[in-house]
């Protein structure tokens, strides 16, 4: 065996090179943009692509009828008590069943700022084109679910028909509704209506905006009445050759406080009491049935299961990342 003999000069060169390399690593580094925010999961004959719109931060004070000390305690347990607020994901879901390409909820486009609005970008990154989407199912019309269908008055999904429940459309689009809104909430309501109308306009112009009622089926999706958060809020259930999946919408906004204490409403709920009843009923059913769910405000990709801890307390079980 040959002995490896390095001349002294080359040793000096190697050690100097190592020092140079070490010095080129900056002491503080800015966090780069993460990889594209999409996550695909196949369920039998159906492919679901979770699309990240972005990450938001919400105030812990938005939780209702719960002592702030309890909120803080739960957030600490989950390491979720950040100075900026509670990190909250905005997700949408693309469903390919071989016949239809359906988008469930659509994110925010530019309704809330540049930290959100990435659904279209992430849809393209996942290998699809916006023109391929032929159906959009909105769980409700809040702008973080509906704004993403358009940008600057132009449809983001020019070949899609948009569906929402009749009750939801009436609540936001019937001009007579304003009178029934409490005075102190009218300005907020009117501002939200403007955003919704602007998003829907290009679809309505082409007669591509439709409503459904309880008992209807929309392109193979069963509709589940889950009112409370908004008056016409619906979830969507899809059967597949594997396990079924329910796109739950905003029956829950927090994988921490509202799983530990599901009786806790949030300020975004239009009818907090009914929203809580809906969550308690749906959580109990989904936990009992081991139901796979997809949620717009649970940590990306927002796909997983609800586990019952007993005594009306639950735990979020996210899917395991699989490449
Ligand atoms: Zn909402």
Give a written overview of the molecule.
With 323 residues, this protein is an alpha+beta fold. It has one domain: Ribonuclease Z/Hydroxyacylglutathione hydrolase-like (Metallo-beta-lactamase, Chain A). It is 27% helix and 27% strand. The protein is built from eight helices and 18 strands. A seven-stranded mixed beta sheet has the order 1-2-4-5-6-9-10. It is globular. The chain starts with 7 loop residues before the first helix and ends in a 5-residue tail after the last strand. Residues 1-8 have low confidence and may be disordered. The site of zinc ion (ZN) has 5 residues, from loops. Belongs to the metallo-beta-lactamase superfamily. Pfam families: Lactamase_B. Keywords: Hydrolase, Metal-binding, Signal, Zinc.
Summary of the model, kept short:
GO terms for molecular function: hydrolase activity; metal ion binding. By secondary structure, this protein is α+β, with helices and mostly antiparallel strands.
């Amino acid at each position: 065996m040959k002995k490896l003999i390095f001349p002294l000069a080359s040793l000096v060169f190697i050690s100097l090179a190592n020092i140079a390399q070490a010095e080129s690593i900056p002491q503080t580094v800015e966090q780069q943009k993460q990889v594209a925010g999409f996550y695909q999961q196949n369920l039998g004959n159906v492919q679901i692509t979770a699309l990240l719109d972005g990450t938001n931060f919400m105030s812990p004070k938005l939780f209702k009828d719960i002592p702030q000390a309890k909120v803080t305690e739960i957030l600490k347990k989950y390491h979720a008590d950040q100075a900026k607020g509670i990190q909250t994901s905005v997700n949408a879901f693309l469903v390919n069943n071989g016949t239809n390409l359906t988008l469930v909820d659509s994110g925010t486009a530019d309704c809330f700022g540049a930290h959100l609005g990435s659904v279209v970008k992430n849809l393209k990154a996942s290998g699809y084109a916006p023109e391929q989407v032929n159906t959009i199912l909105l769980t409700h019309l809040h702008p973080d679910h509906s704004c993403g269908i358009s940008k600057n008055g132009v449809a983001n999904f020019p070949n899609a028909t948009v569906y929402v429940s009749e009750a939801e459309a009436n609540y936001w689009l019937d001009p007579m509704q304003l009178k029934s809104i409490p005075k102190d909430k009218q300005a907020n309501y009117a501002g939200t209506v403007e955003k919704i109308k602007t998003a829907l306009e290009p679809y309505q112009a082409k007669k591509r905006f439709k409503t459904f009622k309880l008992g209807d089926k929309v392109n193979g999706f069963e509709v589940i009445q889950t009112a409370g958060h908004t008056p016409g809020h619906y979830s969507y259930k899809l059967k597949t050759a594997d396990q079924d999946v329910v796109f739950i919408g905003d029956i829950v906004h927090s994988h921490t406080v509202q799983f530990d204490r599901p009786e806790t409403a949030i300020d975004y709920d239009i009818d907090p009491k009914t929203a809580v009843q809906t969550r308690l009923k749906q959580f109990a059913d989904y936990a009992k049935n081991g139901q796979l769910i997809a949620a717009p405000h649970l940590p990306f990709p927002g796909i997983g299961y609800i586990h019952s801890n007993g005594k009306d307390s639950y735990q979020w079980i996210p899917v395991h990342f699989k490449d």
